[in-house]
Design goal:
Ribonucleotide Reductase Protein R1, domain 1, two-stranded antiparallel ribbon, mainly alpha, elongated, Fumarase C, Chain B, domain 1, Fumarase C, Chain A, domain 2, 3 domains
Length: 490
């Protein structure tokens, strides 16, 4: 910012007086006061929210000019400086943590000061002079923290979900469905209550995970439209005091055009300032996706347990050594990383849900914690889905020999005998085989329940896994019809 032998600080002023601020930073007095009074933890205000604020300041400057409230020179300066904020070029000038005022006022003023001082510098002036651009009178014109911070929350969440999370969930679902097709011919033993159950195909098992991921993705997609109505122009409590008529619609339209996202003016700005149900709803959808991902990763972890003393039906890529003391050990680390992310997301949802229920009267004062919870959840899920897909699922393989051993040893093939010998006789055969440590086939022959050929025909695992053809089973038929002709890359 200063290339010469500049002083370490410069003097900035606000309504409480003057104080020294770092000379190489664009923030002003209010941000410096907040740095001093809110030195709580090290979790900075999410950069996604700060960058969203940059776009909002551009939209507001354009709308103010459209309505005659801002001259062309100041409009252009604010838009140019705010664009640098939006593009991430000024990230280092936003030092505040999440744990500031519940309205996010300090962050809004941080943005106002940075945009103003950068605009002043662009105009050839001295930062801190407030000439030709004032942080309140010009950058914050027709706005309040109370309507811009909620808008920034919604913009940041919508952008992150659309750009990162939805594509990551979609890629994971595609990879799962491709793997399901690869293993569609592998018949294996099913398990319920962690006990042996009737057969299914490995493809169907993996397809079940894909279905869960798809449901989580739909939940997130369904929550997105709730983020598009924004309270811009509502100013302090929703009435629009100090904003000119038409500012809200104009600013929302400018915002939507800048982002190519259908943001609109909220029908009820009072509700959007006093509560944040749309963000809480999105948080719940992220939790739904996390639950599905946790279940999938945990199933993979169980099925890959071993390699010799566990289930051992799946083989995961050996990405790194698993133990500092046990040579040759390889662990399901991608599963564990994804599951830990999911627990974090579930915790964030609890925080967002409780925060969403709080606030008083015309203003929710838990905005930053809701924003931080939702944005971190979305970012973590996107990153973890990508990592799991690349480093675990893409290289996932089946141990067909182990799967066949488990299938042959299972007593639950007896289920197919029930229509022929009855439930009680079938149960006796299963208990006999377990107690005498013989195969189910040998038990049935010893008990004289049926002959070997009949047993083999009735307990064919592949037939048990697919008891109906597509013409007889609407669900199987629909699934078969939905399968693409060519596999996606796994």
């Amino acid at each position: 910012m200063n290339n010469g032998a500049a002083p370490a600080t410069r003097r900035e002023s606000d309504s409480l007086g003057t104080l020294e601020v770092p000379a190489d930073r664009y923030w002003g007095a209010q941000t410096e006061r907040a740095r001093h009074h809110f030195a709580i933890g090290g979790q900075r205000m999410p950069v996604a929210l700060v960058r969203a604020y940059g776009i909002i300041k551009q939209a507001a400057a354009l709308a103010n000019h459209d309505l005659g409230g801002l001259d062309e020179e100041r409009r252009d300066l604010i838009v140019a400086a705010a664009e640098e904020v939006a593009d991430g070029r000024l990230d280092d000038h936003f030092p505040l943590t999440v744990w500031v005022s519940g309205s996010g006022t300090q962050t809004n003023m941080n943005v106002n000061e940075v945009v103003a001082n950068r605009a002043i510098e662009m105009a050839g002036g001295e930062p801190g002079s407030r000439d030709p651009v004032h942080p309140n009178d010009h950058v914050n014109r027709s706005q309040s923290s109370n309507d811009t911070f909620p808008t920034a929350m919604q913009v940041a969440a919508a952008r992150l979900v659309r750009r990162r999370l939805m594509p990551s969930l979609g890629a994971l679902e595609d990879c799962l469905r491709a793997k399901a097709r690869v293993f569609d011919d592998v018949t294996k033993i099913g398990r319920t209550h962690l006990q042996d159950a009737v057969p299914l195909t490995l493809g169907d098992e993996i397809g079940g995970w894909a279905g869960q991921v798809a449901a989580g993705k739909r939940a997130v997609a369904d929550a997105l439209p709730e983020l598009y109505p924004v309270p811009l122009g509502g100013t302090a409590v929703g009435t629009g005091l100090n904003a000119p008529p038409g500012f809200g619609p104009a600013a929302a339209a400018r915002l939507g055009a800048l982002l190519d996202i259908p943001f609109t003016l909220a029908d009820d700005r009072f509700a959007r300032i006093a509560s944040h149900d749309s963000l809480v709803r999105l948080s719940g959808a992220l939790r739904d996706a996390a639950q599905a991902l946790f279940k999938m990763a945990n199933d993979v972890r169980w099925l890959a347990s071993g390699p010799r003393c566990g289930l051992g039906e799946l083989q995961l890529p050996a990405n790194e050594p698993g133990s500092s003391i046990m040579p040759g050990k390889v662990n399901p680390t991608q599963c564990e990383a994804l599951m830990q992310v999911c627990t974090r997301v579930m915790g964030h949802d609890a925080a967002a849900g409780f925060a969403g229920s709080q606030g008083n009267l015309e203003l929710s004062v838990f905005k930053p914690v809701i924003a931080a919870s939702v944005l971190e959840s979305a970012e973590l899920l996107a990153d973890a889905c990508d990592s799991f897909r690349r480093y675990a699922l893409a290289g996932l393989d089946a141990d067909r020999r182990r799967i066949e051993q488990h299938l042959d040893n299972s007593l639950m093939l007896v289920t197919a005998l029930v229509p022929v010998v009855g439930y009680d006789a079938a149960a006796r055969a299963a208990h006999f085989a377990l107690e005498e440590e013989v195969t189910l086939r040998d038990a049935c022959l010893a008990m004289g329940l049926l002959d070997g050929a009949t047993f083999d025909r009735l307990t064919d695992p592949a037939a048990m896994a697919r008891p109906y053809g597509p013409e007889d089973d609407p669900v199987a038929g629909a699934a078969a019809a939905a399968k693409p002709d060519s596999d996606s890359e796994a």
